[in-house]
Amino acid sequence: MSLEALRAEILKKARAKADAIIKSAEEEAKKILDEAMREYSRRYELVKEAELRELRDELSKKLSEKNLEVSMRLLNLKNEIVKELREEILSKIKEVGNAERRNSLKKLITECLNELHTEQKINVGVVERDVPLIKDVLRELGIEGRVKEIKILPPESVGGVLVELEDGSLGLDNTYTTRLERLLSIIYKKLNNEVFGG
Q1: Under 8 Å CB-to-CB from 191, ≥6 apart: which residues?
Q2: What is the CA radius of gyration of the chain?
Q3: What pLDDT score does 120 carry?
Q4: Are 39 and 59 in contact (CB under 8 A)?
Q5: Nearest of 86, 122, 124 to residue 105 by alpha carbon
Q6: Percentage helix, strand, coil, to 5, in the chain?
Q7: Which of 64, 113, 130, 138 has its CA 20 to 30 A from that of 12?
Q8: Which residues touch 122 (CB under 8 Å, ≥6 apart)?
Q9: Rounded to 10 degrees, what is the CA torsion of 91, 94, 96, 102?
Q10: Number of compact structural domains in the chain
């Protein structure tokens, strides 16, 4: 399943969950409003203006509490969706074969080198699994002489490359987890705007 189809499916599920939560909240708010209106009508002839103000304040407080509760539920749902999506994408990244990983490493290191605009020696960081692949890519690109050191990144990086200048003054993080976090940030904003309306 492509990332676009996966994203579309997640958004579809998010919309369905959001619709159910919103419908439930609307029904609850309608019940509160109906109950408050009945109480308002009953007291209208019996109480003074001060008591009516108190009733309106109470209704406003209940509606505010319900709005806060719905907002918290929506926030939790957004976080849950993004977390599930993150776990699923990381799982798929871990299953990618060596040929695809090699092509990906080539693209990512080329991006980094194009950004750095320097002939300085560099250090390249990859996860342990990708060390033979990056050596092959560096040879293919003809830049193995520019690489001072290949460093091993922690496993939580999942893959990708971290390129830094030899003196450590500048580095570019093009690891899969960093790229994924940027993507999830975009998805979270899209969920917020398109599904949850704000």
Answers
A1: 11, 14, 78, 81, 82
A2: 27
A3: 83
A4: no
A5: 124
A6: 75, 10, 15
A7: 64
A8: 113, 116, 146, 147, 148, 163, 164, 165, 166
A9: 150
A10: 2
82 and 160: one domain?
no
Residues 45 and 105 in one domain: no
Q: Which residues contact 158 (CB under 8 A, 6 or more apart)?
A: 90, 93, 94, 127, 175, 176, 177, 180
Strand partners, 174: 161
Per-block mean pLDDT, blocks of 10 residues, the chain (198 long): 70 72 66 65 64 80 85 82 86 89 93 84 93 95 91 90 87 90 85 68
Give the Cα separation of 113 and 118 in Å (integer): 8
In the structure encoding, which two tokens stand for residue 195, read together? 């599904």
Measuring CA to CA, which residue among 194, 192, 159, 193 is closest to residue 77? Answer: 192
CA separation for the pair 160, 158 (Å, rounded) = 7
What's residue 29's pLDDT?
58
Structural domain harbouring 155: 98-179
- In the chain, the amino acid numbered 57 is D
Instruction: Spell out the residues 6+ positions from residue 46 whose beta carbon is closer than 8 angstroms to its own.
Output: none
Tokens (6 digits) for 155:
């496993």
Query: What residues pair up with 172 in beta bridges, in sequence order?
Result: 163
Q: Domain check: are 71 and 124 in the same one?
A: no
Q: How far apart are CA 198 and CA 196, in angstroms?
A: 6
The one-letter amino acid at 129? R
